[in-house]
């Protein structure tokens, strides 16, 4: 017997279709706004894009030619249109740092970030959810305060600093971590990229030495990155659980004489799973923010490291492509969490 | 009669602050402030947060007195010295006193926090109130713009702005401000929506109050408490974002003692000299924790709906 929540809200097919269309429309509008924002930031830059290409010793004629080639003599809306159509064709320009198209670079570095972020979210959710449930069930007792304190600390800690301290303690002092990079330098390039995820690739090809080295290197940045999502996930879990535990079906279950653990896990927790999935999806997106700093600290050859190293040399093409990508991923994850909610929530399935 | 007068004011004040017979609006406001203060003092964590913030303000204001050394004076012979009686937090790679640099760095942190809040508060309030009060297409367009800004993680967007504007303290402030207003606007809009439909607004409108008057005399005062709480809680995030920008070299430029930049500069030496990264990073952690604690306390006080 599964506990029933509130009765399904009455709705017919028409409004639902309309709201679906509206959702698609709003996503498209947000995407266009996103493009306009990165376009505007790219134009804000005080560096003259022409001089960045030809250097400051070129003649005026060369300057004018490049100026026209870049389309800077066109009206702004034409320039914006050109920018959007370039991006739609997957053309983000050429990165100064590598001399290759930016999009190729990003595709190459992205798996490293996804691998790191995925492990982080597993750590974050794996610890955050039980902590949140504990805090909710032991509300206003010592356990609740302890969890609140932990989350407060991790909300207040600069993640790049925690990375450095982690390196001092676990690499230099204890030797538990392999240090910076994805694997020890000795093992670099042994495993051919199949999925791009080094842990999986090394397992597939049976290179256990590489696997252990990769694991030694990834656990520390992943744990530190996971800490921030842990704080968010445990806070949200706590408030979801508190909401459920105040419902009448919980009271009924307790009156029936059901054991407390059954009440918590079989009844209350079951009803927050959908909300949890959406929260974890959102937390996954915000991991990208911490990844920029953590990858810089750990010399992780991923997307965040790529972004900052392009930032250092002032290659705005590459930087803006990365920023745009982060925005698109964010919107995608928002949409995903919305869809997941609709798919998994039994109340929307009932009709 | 004369003995009465000498003791009357002191007894009178506490009586005036706690009596049920309130005679003036000023007394009511004073009582509210007094009981708020008492309530706040009953939350030890919030008081600790407030004390740390006070300490931050004092060390920023009186940095030359609080510091023991010149924050940018180099002394290569005393480079990378561990913490000692002479250099409380040790010295960095150029022999500068880390304690003094952290004290002076409080000025930079405080400047960023105050400037960003002063820019972001009014902009967020205005956009949110306008969207919530006018509704219709104004609301839709303003909220769409807010959504676009919210669809970036704040550090990544601030990074993009700071990179485009060029590194520097002023540009870091602008970059952070550009990313920090949307949550305020969202909050102000939500508050306005609930206030807009309440009876006293309808009454004021019936009496003939203009829209501008409704907005600024009736809606604004009720939006303010939650916006201030949100700003205060945001300050912790602002400090972390600023430190992140500084760490990536986009904030205040050397030799100014910005905490994030100090942490970044210490990276090369941290394995042998732990204090060069530990000290400035701890300063960031403690101050942002203080703003979180203070903000939580303020929220419990000003916004009873959110209290656990």
UniProtKB/TrEMBL annotation, chain A:
Q: Which domain of life is it from?
A: Bacteria
PANTHER family linked to this entry: D,D-DIPEPTIDE TRANSPORT SYSTEM PERMEASE PROTEIN DDPB-RELATED, DIPEPTIDE TRANSPORT SYSTEM PERMEASE PROTEIN DPPB-RELATED
Q: What are the entry keywords?
A: Cell membrane, Membrane, Transmembrane, Transmembrane helix, Transport
Pfam families the record matches: BPD_transp_1, BPD_transp_1_N
The family line of this record is:
Belongs to the binding-protein-dependent transport system permease family.
Cellular location(s): Cell membrane
Which lineage is the organism of this entry classified under, starting from the top rank? Bacteria, Pseudomonadati, Pseudomonadota, Alphaproteobacteria, Hyphomicrobiales
Q: What is this protein called?
A: Peptide/nickel transport system permease protein
Which Gene3D superfamilies did the record assign? MetI-like (1.10.3720.10)
Could you confirm whether the keyword Lipoprotein appears in this record?
no
**Where exactly are the transmembrane stretches of this chain?**
20-41, 116-137, 149-173, 185-204, 210-233, 276-298, 318-341
GO terms under cellular component: plasma membrane
From TrEMBL, chain B:
Q: Which PROSITE patterns match?
A: ABC_TM1
Pfam families reported in the protein's UniProt record: BPD_transp_1, OppC_N
Q: Which InterPro entries match?
A: BP-dependent_transpt_permease (IPR050366), MetI-like (IPR000515), MetI-like_sf (IPR035906), OppC_N (IPR025966)
Where it sits in the cell: the answer is: Cell membrane
Mostly located where? membrane
Cellular component GO terms held in the UniProt record: plasma membrane
Q: How does it sit in the membrane?
A: Multi-pass membrane protein
Would you say which domain of life the source belongs to? Bacteria
**What are the alphabetically sorted keywords of the record?**
Cell membrane, Membrane, Peptide transport, Protein transport, Transmembrane, Transmembrane helix, Transport
| ABC transmembrane type-1 domain segment(s) | 106-295
One Gene Ontology biological process: protein transport
Question: Any keyword Transport?
Answer: yes
| Transmembrane parts of this sequence | 45-67, 108-135, 155-181, 227-253, 273-295
**Similarity comment:** Belongs to the binding-protein-dependent transport system permease family.
Recorded protein name is Peptide/nickel transport system permease protein
């Amino acid at each position: 017997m599964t506990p029933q929540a509130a009765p399904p809200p009455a709705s017919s097919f028409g409004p639902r279709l309309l709201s679906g269309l509206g959702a698609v429309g709003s996503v498209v509008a947000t995407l266009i706004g996103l493009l306009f924002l990165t376009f505007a930031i790219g134009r804000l830059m005080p560096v003259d894009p022409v001089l960045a290409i030809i250097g400051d010793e070129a003649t005026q004629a060369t300057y004018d030619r490049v100026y026209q080639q870049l389309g800077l003599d066109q009206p702004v809306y034409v320039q914006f249109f050109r920018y959007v159509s370039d991006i739609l064709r997957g053309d983000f320009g050429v990165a100064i740092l590598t001399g290759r198209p930016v999009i190729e670079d990003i595709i190459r570095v992205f798996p490293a970030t996804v691998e790191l972020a995925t492990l982080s979210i597993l750590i974050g959710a794996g610890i955050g959810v039980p902590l949140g449930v504990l805090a909710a069930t032991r509300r206003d007792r010592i356990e609740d305060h302890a969890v609140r304190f932990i989350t407060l600390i991790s909300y207040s800690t600069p993640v790049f600093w925690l990375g450095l301290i982690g390196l001092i303690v676990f690499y230099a002092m204890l030797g538990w971590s392999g240090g910076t990079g994805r694997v020890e330098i000795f093992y670099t390039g042994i495993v051919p990229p199949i999925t791009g995820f080094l842990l999986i690739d090394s397992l597939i090809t049976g290179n256990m030495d590489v696997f252990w080295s990769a694991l030694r290197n990834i656990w520390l940045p992943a744990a530190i990155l996971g800490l921030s999502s842990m704080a968010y996930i445990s806070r949200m879990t706590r408030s979801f659980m508190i909401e459920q535990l105040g419902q009448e079906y919980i009271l009924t279950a307790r009156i029936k004489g059901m054991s407390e653990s059954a009440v918590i896990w079989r009844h209350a927790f079951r009803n927050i799973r959908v909300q949890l999935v959406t929260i974890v999806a959102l937390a996954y997106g915000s991991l990208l923010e911490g990844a920029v700093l953590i990858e810089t600290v750990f010399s992780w050859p991923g997307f965040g490291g790529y972004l900052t190293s392009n930032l250092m040399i002032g290659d705005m093409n590459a930087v803006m492509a990365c920023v745009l990508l982060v925005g698109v991923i964010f919107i995608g994850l928002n949409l995903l969490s919305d869809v997941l909610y609709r798919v998994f929530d039994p109340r929307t399935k009932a009709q | 009669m004369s003995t009465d007068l000498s003791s009357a004011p002191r007894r009178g004040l506490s009586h005036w602050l706690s009596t049920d017979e309130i005679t003036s609006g000023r007394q009511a406001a004073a009582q509210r402030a007094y009981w708020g203060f008492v309530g706040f003092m009953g939350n030890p964590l919030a008081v600790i947060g407030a004390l740390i913030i006070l300490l931050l303000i004092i060390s920023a204001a009186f940095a030359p007195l609080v510091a023991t050394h010149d924050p940018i004076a180099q002394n290569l012979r005393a480079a990378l010295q561990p913490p000692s009686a002479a250099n409380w937090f040790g010295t960095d790679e150029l022999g500068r006193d880390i304690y003094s640099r952290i004290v002076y760095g409080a000025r930079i942190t405080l400047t960023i926090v105050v400037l960003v809040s002063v820019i972001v508060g009014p902009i967020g309030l205005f956009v949110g109130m306008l969207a919530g009060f006018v509704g219709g297409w104004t609301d839709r367009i303003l909220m769409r713009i807010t959504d676009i800004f919210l669809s970036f993680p704040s550090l990544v967007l601030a990074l993009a702005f700071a990179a485009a504007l060029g590194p520097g303290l002023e540009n870091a402030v602008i970059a952070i401000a550009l990313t920090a207003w949307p949550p305020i606007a969202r909050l102000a809009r939500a508050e306005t929506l609930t206030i807009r439909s309440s009876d006293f607004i309808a009454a004021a409108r019936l009496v003939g109050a203009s829209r501008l008057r409704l907005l600024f005399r009736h809606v604004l005062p009720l939006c303010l408490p939650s916006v201030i709480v949100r700003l205060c809680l945001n300050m912790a995030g602002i400090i972390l974002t600023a430190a992140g920008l500084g760490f990536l070299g986009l904030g205040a430029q050397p030799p100014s003692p910005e905490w994030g930049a100090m942490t970044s500069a210490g990276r090369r030496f941290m394995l042998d000299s732990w204090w060069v990264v530990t000290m400035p990073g701890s300063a960031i952690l403690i101050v942002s924790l203080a703003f979180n604690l203070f903000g939580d306390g303020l929220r419990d006080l000003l916004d009873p709906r959110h209290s656990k």
